[in-house]
Amino acid sequence: MAAEEITPSILSGLTAGVPDTDPEETSEWVESFDALVKERGSERARFVMRSLLQRAGAQSVGVPMVTTTDYVNTIPVDDEPAFPGNEEFERRYRAYMRWNAAIMVHRAQRADIGVGGHISTYAGAATLYEVGFNHFFRGKDHAGGGDQVFFQGHASPGMYARAFMEGRLSEEDLDGFRQEKSKEGHALSSYPHPRLMPHFWEFPTVSMGIGPMNAIYQAQSNRYLHNRGLKDTSDQQVWAFLGDGEMDEPESRGLLQLAANEGLDNLNFVINCNLQRLDGPVRGNGKIMQELEAFFRGAGWNVIKVVWGREWDDLLSKDRDGALVDLMNTTVDGDYQTYKAESGAFVREHFFGRTPQTKELVAELDDEQIWNLKRGGHDYRKVYAAYKAATEFKGKPTVILAKTVKGYGLGTHFEARNATHQMKKLTMEDLKAFRDHLRIPVSDAELEKDLYRPPYYHPGTEAPEIQYMMERRAALGGSLPERRHKHQELVLPAEKAYEVAHKGSGKQKAATTMAFVRMLKDLLRDKDFGKHVALIVPDESRTFGMDAFFPTAKIYNPKGQNYLSVDRELVLAYKESPLGQLIHPGINEAGAVAAFTAAGTAYATHGVPLVPIYVFYSMFGFQRTGDSFWAAADQMTRGFVIGATAGRTTLTGEGLQHADGHSLILAGTNPAVRAYDPAYGYEIAHIVRHGLEQMYGPDSQDPNVMYYLTVYNEPIHQPAQPEGVDVDGIVRGIHHISAPTVDGPRANILAAGVSVPWGLEAQKVLAEDWGVAADVFSVTSFNELRRDGIAADEHNLLNPDELRTPYLTQKLADNPHPVVAVSDYMRAVSDQVRQYLPNRFTSLGADGFGFSDTRQAARRFFKNDTHSIVVAVLQQLAAEGKVDASAPREAIAKYELTNVNAGTTGGAGGDA
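Request: output the structure for the sequence above.
Response:
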């Protein structure tokens, strides 16, 4: 393929398309530079080049930015540090781990199990991990506090194999791979799942793209803890192991700017560039390493490429005219993949044979020597040099692009094949070849006993290589991965912090958003508790009335505020500070959830509890970042997520994409989320207090929960907490707030969130116009009522002699009258509890798309307003013969229920 046909991202583009008007002079300059490198070394040459580029800029000589370099190692041979380990010992047990990882997956594929697994990812990445384990990854007992390592999900068999070598796992455990219930007690999760293996894994990573962004925000969270004086994290590194195919996920690349902007030099990405995604090459017609180099360098990262192993060094030193480097530059990934699936003879002909110069370079090498020209990601010296350079680099995050072969060493059926990601079984031929390649002392007879039960291998704890391995881990602070639960005690807020919410709003109106923010202000003021709150708000603080925190809590920025604020004269001026408490990700919900996850797991990661409170437009929470909330649940994140500007009809004027009628349903699909739809400030106070007690109280049954509260922007009169309020009912999902004032046909109105005032108004209309006596209940959580009902169902299935009654059924046991359930959400929210009520049941809500209009018109359109509740109650009572059959029809006409302009439910205003 001609150079001009190559994708532009492959080459730097410095000379592409620019005519050379004097090749002889060019040659002299190039020779002069080569001599400089030879005589003075690469460091001196680098300074001279930087000086020339700077001079070119000063002279207005337009030189384009160098976004990519040649397809060779970033660190030249003369800059490589000496490898400090015992290469032979490390080679031995690395081979044992590669064998045991593959055998574990293979054994799980026998006919009576067949649970799957991945062999090829770890086979190709073993060196990348082992150099880290032996020389860089610090455990929890390291004096610096230990590192956080985000392991590539599909490489999990390798981590289990190492844990087996260290004595942390047994053969029985390995045989429990992917059999978490049937082998309970000796089971291993398929991927890194902290919730499933809470003492082993720290970070869930197999949902592609979430690992990269969570690693970035973990590095930021480390600095946040340090700058706020909560923990010294200055000697901790974050490592994220990623796949080159994974980098196509927008989440993988979309948050790189944060790491660069904040100078997170405590962060290292290691991208395993095996050139393959699940079904084929990542960039068959291009070069993914070059593309990623350009992308990361443009984003402000330090880039280190590890392309070729040491076997190439001699060839590159002999490449006087650059023919080999040019060939490396212009060969596309699809061809590189094919070469590793063929043979040395094939590589000689189809790669080196493409130019006379490169063909001559390898004339003295036989085919086996050509085949053994390794990729850089399999050379522990090259990888060690890259890791050392990354950890010593200051001022920027680092990405290491390491070229590997997927399925390395597994034999011709696996190496670099398109289908290798899905291949889980080894033939007897594969087993023997793999054993020979790794030099595992297992005989043919042992293998031939049972194809699906080949033996694991461990040389014994006294073997010198195992002693060495354990010494290395001890020196680095203990085994990884490891998750610990012990943390500093968190003193929960005193009663005083909730008083303002209990008092109500008096004569003024206040939205529940404002009621929450006022209470939050007092929580932050709490002497012991306040500093542990991590406020997280995308670019909407003023919308939610949280700009009051700018001058006091301040916005976190490790660089401070180095400009004169335009609103500096205002009381609520914008204020950034390294000590800031408010994390401001910008217009970036994905980053906000990543920050929430890092803060909400600091109790385990750092032993320092933080309580993240993430406030967002309710429409842009679970809908936009639901996968991230699942990862947060898997990581056992604790904290509060607040869906502000909630409801489908409450945020007037914004329209369809801002009208949330379904976030409670989405939240309910996450088992770790406790979702609430409170109506009043005092309800919010009790829910928040209960949530904190669940997360950090001494009597908690399940601390690893996230509380989701919807809060609205519609101002209402916030009542003071009534005498004898049913606190248990509030936190369990329902409490009675208003008894009927007349005698007459009975009904029940179950209202949630912003619809509670409509239910109270409907109670009044029913009494005055129809003589109907209605009880009104505030349903703080249909979701929790359903969760309780399901728990009762499960109990009753197995305990038919000890039947349990769901809480909702108990609450209405003495009130068998018709029920009308209403909310500003789709009917599916209230329909969740229908099976737990023997009463006649009607649900009202806001199904369908949102739109821009007044609150009154929108509610009349969706038929969830005051008069729709009245009509629904009358219909139920008419069906029971408790009111005249004509009553519903008369009410529809009386209240003009089909006229959207006749709606009267709700008021105007309410920005927050």
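The longest strand covers residues 267-273.
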